[in-house]
Structure formats: structure tokens, C-alpha cells
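Hi everyone,

Forwarding the result from last night's run.
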Amino acid sequence: MEDWNELRLVLAIQRGGGLTAASAALGIDHSTAFRRLKALEAQLGVRLFERLPGGVYQPTEAGARIAAGAERMEDEFLALGRDVVGGDHRLSGRLRVTSSETLAYSQLTAHLAAFRRAHPGIVVELSIDNRVLSLSRREADIALRPVRPKEGDLWGRKLAGVAWALYAAPAYVEAHGGVPKSGKLDGHALIGWDEAASGIRAAEWLAQSAAPSAVVYRTNSLVNQLIAARAGVGLALLPCYLGDDDPGVVRAAARPVAELEGELWIVTHADLRKTARVRAFFDLVGAGLANQADLFEGRRSGRAIV
């Protein structure tokens, strides 16, 4: 095996579980990935993947060994890249940032505009993705995350707590009343996530607090849930930094939901923490978001009709 791309292909198929995900990750078409895998297996004289129903590719022992070796090589390559970038003292170049849809929609963009004015030589690439992208694999240089990082090679700080509350259009609350202090949602039309949502604390809380029949509108986008609440569809459970800052909705319950208190973190890889453009982003954007802690934590005087 003389071509690094052969190793990358095996690793991508193992990570993605099939050719479709691997071809997307590598930027090649499905037929090219298939031909390259067949050629590699013929060259080595060994089968690297078992083809299972549904297009699933399960690595054989040989395939798993090659993928493990490719991952070690990738780790070394990425570490070398981080080492070089980590010593970059220029306030110029590309900076890849990842954020959730709600943060980008409501608060982040204004801080990015201020960052651009202060550092016009830095090109910010914002990836709006609710998944946790890998900073070790350089899928992003900086992440704004709703959870404390667990990986030991990451470095960052907590910017604020994050509170959640129930919101609706003023006309809806005036017509149907607010949520009583008991927290019961009886009689209210609810806006929620699609039924396939899993691992979302707010979605789980809503499912435990009301019957499925109470949910009259479902969407996997919190921004669209806000828009639906603004249009009078019903109550939406939203982070306070999204709901309290929107003039089209009010709190249907004065207090945030205590069980859903979360956090907002700004994180980078430890190897990049001294890079000039990373430090500049932490200092300007990170500090700007931290200064809004009252909004994130639901302590700003919100409009409520209860």
C-alpha cells in the first residue's frame, strides 16, 4: 500500500459504516469509492469489509487493522498540523468556528461582525451544526458548545449558564392563559421536536410533561419552533437567550425550567490555544458572549404574561 488515499478510504468506510458516508467524507462519488475499494482488495488479496443488508459495510479483521493503522497515521498528521498552526502569531488567515443554529441565529453573528471589524485579516468560516464536531481532527478550530468538554486534549472556559423557559405569542397567552406555578401544561397546544428526537434534554422533558396528543406542531429546528410560537401555534420550550431577546414572544411561565439548566462553553484544541487568531477570538467573541450571562441564564427582565 503506497498511497495514503487508500488508507483514508478504508478509515472513512469504517467510520461511516458504508460507501455513501465515506464518499461524502472524501469528496468523491460512490462509484469511485466502490472501484477503489475493489481494486485495493484485489491488490491485497484479502476482503476488507463484509457487505451487510442495507448498504452497511462491516470491517473484517484485516479491514479493522488497516483502519486502526490509518487512524494512527491521521493522528500524527493532524498533531503535526496543530503544532505548526499553534505557533502562528499572525492575526490573519482562516478560522473555522462551529456553533449551534440557535446561538448563530440570535447572538453570535453580532459578535462575529465586531470581530471582523477588529481583525479584518481573519476570515471566519462558521459551521452551523448541532453535532459535536471533532476539534482533534480539525473539523473546526473553535467550538461554542452547550456542554462541558470531556476530551482531555481540549482547552476552553465556561461563558455562562443556559436557562430554558416556555414562550408563546402575547395573543396566545392572553387567550389561553399562562402556565400555572404547578407547571402543568394541561389545555395548551405545544410545539415540539419530531418523534425521532433522542438525546435532547428539552425534548425529553416536554415528552415527560405532556401527552403526545398535546403537541400540535413538530420540527427539529429550534429557530423554527420560535417562529411557530411567534405565529401563535402554541407554547415552545426555548433557551432564554433565544426567547427573551425576541419581541414576538413572551414567557408563558415566569421562571425557567430548573431541570434544564445547562452551560455554554468556548473550546479549542490545547495545541491551538496560543495561536494568535484563536486567542483573539476568545478575547473578543468569548468575552462578548460572557458579558451577556444575564440573558443566557434567564436573569434579564423578560416579558411575561402570566
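The chain has three domains: 4-86, 93-161+262-295, 164-260.

Cheers,
N.
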